[in-house]
Amino acid sequence: MLFPPDNSLAEEYFNEAIVLPTIDGTEDHLWLEHNPPLSLSKNKEAKWNGHYIILIHGMEGSSESHYMVSVGKEALLRGYGVIRMNLRNCGKGLGLARKPYNAGQSEDLDAVLSYVERYYTKKYVVSGFSLSANLVLKYFGENRKFKARAFSATSPPLDLRRSCDFIDSRAGLFYRTHFLTTMKEKVESGIYDISRSAIEKVLKSKTFFDFDEFFTAPMSGYKNVLEYYNICSSSRYLSNIKTPGLVIHADDDPVVPSEVWREIDWQKFQNIETILTEKGGHVGFISDSTSDYPDGRWLPKMIMDFFDRKLS
After folding, report:
1. Which of 62, 63, 65, 130 is catalytic?
2. Environment class of residue 255 by beta-carbon count within 10 Å: exposed (0-12), middle (13-18) or buried (19+)?
3. Taking every annotated instance into account, which residue ranges of this chain make up the domain AB hydrolase-1 (predicted)?
């Protein structure tokens, strides 16, 4: 139950890779995975409903992350086309960018949505997880050019500073160690546009705060880490969201503090529906096996039921 599912989107269905240039002048590229609607490929199981779903993974995840695959498959079987977006230097996109991803990279979502509108459809929904759930909330709160029909945000770090403090605390040791290890490995590999002396400084980071201060913030064009956290925290954009959205969080999330969630008066935001569960962890949401959820994963159905309802 705790092991990720096989990537059936690549094994059972037609799947193609798309290498997409970013639009920020860096000449970086993003790696996307595309599953066209089943009725447009050899498999005629589900009639295309005219919509695509764009899925965006969390910190140090990829298009292969279990939630990306399970939600993508659920969407495909319901008649959607599916785009799984890798953030910069994640998954198979490792080495395609000289800049890192961050929690507020709206321009990269712009690039993907522009591509979807140009080649597939102007009807789409967007689903972000963890760090990218923050990105999605920020994006739709900015009311940018590209307009989705709806969005979902699962386990978003609504306040980046407080989420950083939480994961830098004793309670976050396991996740802090895991994430810092993989992020430092990328920095040390030399894929980023950064000097050797700067690399050595980054590698000495003991906390998330230090890593973002020495690397993420300056590499992303922010004056310092506090400016990065302030500008990119999604909580400050909620009141401007006009797109229908679903925000999902678990009270036992070991990465994102629930106190931030509880301080927000969600009823003020008429376009946002919320689900707060007692259990679920961080983008986990696995329960005992039932007839409705044979593998125990109920998150895909909850997200796709919301989208189906908004598109009907």
Report:
1. 130
2. buried
3. 53-287
